[in-house]
Amino acid sequence: MKILTFPLLLLVPTGLRAADGAEAAHAGITPEQMQFFEKNIRPVLVQSCYKCHSAESAKVKGGLTLDTKQATLLGGESGHPGVTPGDATQSSVYEAMTWKNEDMQMPPKQKLPDEVIANFRKWIEMGAPDPRESKVVNASGGKRVIDMDEGRKHWAFQKPVKHGPPAVKTEDWAKTEIDQFVLAGMEAKGLHPVRDADRPTLIRRIAFDLTGLPPTPDEVKAFVADPSPEAVKRVIDMYLDSERYGERWARHWLDVARYAESSGKEVNVLYPHAWRYRDYVIESFKKDKPYDQFLKEQIAGDLLKFDGKRDQANKIVATGFLAIGPKGHNNRDRRQFAMDVVDEQIDAMSQSMLGLTLACARCHDHKFDPVTQRDYYALAGIFLSSETLFGTYEQLQNNNTAGLIELDRNSGQTAALAKISTAEVAELKGSYQKAKTAAEEAQREIFAMRQQDREKAGAASFLRIRGARDRAEEVKADVDLFYEDGTPRTLAMGVLDRKTPYDSPVLIRGDIKQPGDVVPRGLVEVLCAKGEPLNISPQSGSGRLDLAFWIASKENPLTARVMANRVWLKLMGSGIVPTPDNFGVMGQKPSHPELLDYLAVTFMDNGWSVKKLIREIMMSRAYQMGSGYDAANYAADPDNKYHWRMNQRRLEAEAIRDAMLAVGGTLNLYPVDGSPVARAGEGRQGLISIFRGELTSKAYNFRSIYIPIIRDQIPEMLSVFDYPDASLVNGDRDTTNVPSQSLYLMNNPQVQNAADAFAARLVKHPGTSAERLSYAYELAFGRQPTAQEKTAISNFWMRFPQQIAKGGGNSREAKEQAEFAALSAFCQSLIASAEFRYLN
After folding, report:
1. HSE-up of 103 (CA within 13 Å, CB side)?
2. Is 486 buried (19+), middle (13-18) or exposed (0-12) by CB count in 10 A?
3. Cα torsion angle, 774, 776, 779, 783, sign
4. Alpha carbon distance 561, 608 (integer Å)
5. With bands split at pLDDT 50, 70 and 90, how would you rate the model's confidence at 213?
6. Among 280, 271, 206, 274, which Cα is nearest to 250's?
7. Rounded-to-integer distance, Cα 321 and Cα 278, Å
8. Are the beta carbons of 376 and 359 closer than 8 angstroms?
9. By three-state DSSP, how is residue 610 classified?
């Protein structure tokens, strides 16, 4: 493994009127579907199909055109539909892509990558959402013209202004200015707020929202018994100051940052050093790092001023944000690989920080937002002028490797591996020399055979040489992990400036083989004031530092709004802007625009403090409302768009798992040092060992944020409860309610082990059986059982142990085993209940 040492030094105008038209035309397509089409389908059609199958083709082959939705559905001369929404098997375009039919193979010269074909199948099965309409010539002769002045009128591209709270009719309900905005919205729609949440419900909500864990029975009792007006603020501050807060809120950002510890795609190479970025995010939220600084460090931490070695190392680790994305390591064209990495970086940066889909302008001007292809390649030059270091060694199917950044050994960074002896270092070096020699000998021997014409160059010879060389590279990677004295090197994924900056040409249709005019490195025009310089000065290196300060500026109209909306979504259950990753023309409009601006400006005025923003929202009566049903309100606002009640929310997968361990008293709250991926290494054998090793053992009882995230191989506990695609920016997880979740909670050994631990904890609790069972309710739900529940518990306890004991004999041991089995079954029923998994 190479290591670098870092020294300590189309036709839709994008104005407002066009935006409204686009929304009307594509009302049936969700923003997520639109983004999937623009990123994964349209570019392939443009690059690989339009030459022979578009209205502009010199000769349309097979009578098939694919440049409009209608023509794509219709198909060509064969009479078969080109695309049948919902059914890939009845779609001739998909069949041609698979090359399974020898008479119909498209593109004809080279089959598309498996990942691209899989994306087309996914697109068709989701209903083939397609925003393209029949081509109509407009007043400009068919050429799409973006009017930047008109485009800047879009609400999200105008600077937020702090509005005063509106007047309301209902007196004495609003506690804060936030409440006045919410109440005004309700009153305008003829709605009224439901009553406040009771104390046990409220503290459970606060505890999970801030720590991802249930409150302890003692915490609930203390809060319920505290009648003072300051009680809510005290409990909020207690959890904000908790060590667990950083882990909880870091998880939200890691969803947005598409955090994972492998490349995904066809090869799925492990990234043993990705965990440092995870820990950086946890520590940043724990210390309430100002959000603007947080963003600057992730884009250009290596270029920022630093205060000592530790601070410098942390800032370098922050740039791992740009390095941890998915990558197609088996791509043989390194130029294409580099452009794909840059595209992924632009996509992740723009969606997560700006709430825009800038990557949609790779092949053409953005179809909906006022973003040009020139804007895209101005940004691309910035990232092409930076070296992305993700740390993989060369092996079969991994044609694209990179080094890592070596952090100063005195920077106080956690080591991923234990120290080894000097003898073990020598042994590793010896193993490398042997493997290297074996690879060289295999190559010489096969070359000699070919010279003597005794053997032709076949696949077996190639695999023999390649296997020996890969083994040598694998051992070399292990050698590079340690200093001579056996101390592990502190290595990080990240980004550094290249020695020579690079301005990118515009790539016609996004094709690296069709470069156009060179574009100076720069910023996105529509987000800059009219007349403001867009280009990066030659003295500023890659331009990442300029980009970082531009994104994190108070003058940027999007940055504070996007984060304020993310925080509101996580606390209230739905965003003021329902599409948290898309504030563009195809994103949904804010339900309370003045409230969003109020939160954004207040956020900036408070030093970009996420904790202060959270506290302000939680102190509102809107947050403290109950989730009760009101028929009249529901009839007028079934989606609770205007927050007349608190949304009921299903806990995320991590919170469900952590809560199961917490109620059983087995949750290990000690942060994990490193990651199992770091100990497994990069190779395929390492991938297998992770899931056969510590993750499946009872001993791995750490918080779920420390579970390794391997793209396309997410652990069942997480995937069954809607863990997001770790290759995509995701600000709002899906929530499903499907049979597989119930089956998991009934039958999975990890759930059964958690129930056994829960039961064992109850056995140790003093008191009668009835008191222990009541205590189980306090642990699981944060409340005492009702009178009806107590009766049901009593009936259960009288019958169930005896039923289990039948056939087991009358010995004391058999009776105790039966009682424990009954108690465990009772605990499992609590864990499997909806109340355990939901916040009211």
Report:
1. 3
2. middle
3. negative
4. 11
5. very high
6. 280
7. 9
8. yes
9. helix
Q: Nearest Cα to 353, choosing from 206, 550, 87?
A: 550
Q: Would you list the DSSP string of 297-323?
A: HHHHGGGS--SHHHHHHHHHHHGGGGT
Q: Which residue has the tokens 């006045």?
A: 180
Q: Are 126 and 36 in contact (CB under 8 A)?
A: yes
DSSP, res 52? T
User: Cα–Cα distance between 37 and 43 in angstroms, integer?
Assistant: 9
pLDDT in tens, 694-721: 555 556 799 999 999 999 889 899 999 9
Q: What is the DSSP string of 114-126?
A: HHHHHHHHHHHHT
- Helices in 105-163 by DSSP H: which ranges? 114-125, 148-151
The backbone torsions φ and ψ at residue 749, rounded to the nearest 5 degrees and listed phi first, read -60, -35
686: pLDDT confidence band, cut at 50, 70 and 90?
low
* Dihedrals phi, psi of 389, to nearest 5 degrees: -115, 105
| Exposure b/e, 808-820, CB count within 10 A at least 16 = b | eeeeeeebebbbb
First to last CA, the chain: 51
User: How wide is the angle at C-alpha 42 spanned by C-alphas 41 and 44, nearest 5°?
Assistant: 70
Nearest to 481 by CA among 414, 422, 408, 406: 406
List the beta bridge partners of residue 482. 488
Q: Is the separation of the CB atoms in 572 and 566 below 8 Å?
A: no
Structure tokens at 469: 């060389």
In sequence order, the 6+-apart residues with CB closer than 8 A to the CB of 229 are none
CA atoms of 258 and 272, how far apart (whole Å): 16
Closest CA relative to residue 130, chosen from 10, 257, 284: 10
Is-above-0.70 flag for pTM? Answer: yes
CA atoms of 114 and 119, how far apart (whole Å): 9
Note if the bond before 108 is cis, omega within 30 degrees.
no
Residue whose C-alpha is closest to residue 642's, from 602, 590, 605, 601: 590
Q: How far is CA 518 from the centre of its chain?
A: 33
Give the model confidence (pLDDT) of 411-430 as tens digits: 989 888 888 888 888 888 88
pLDDT over 80 (residue 334):
yes
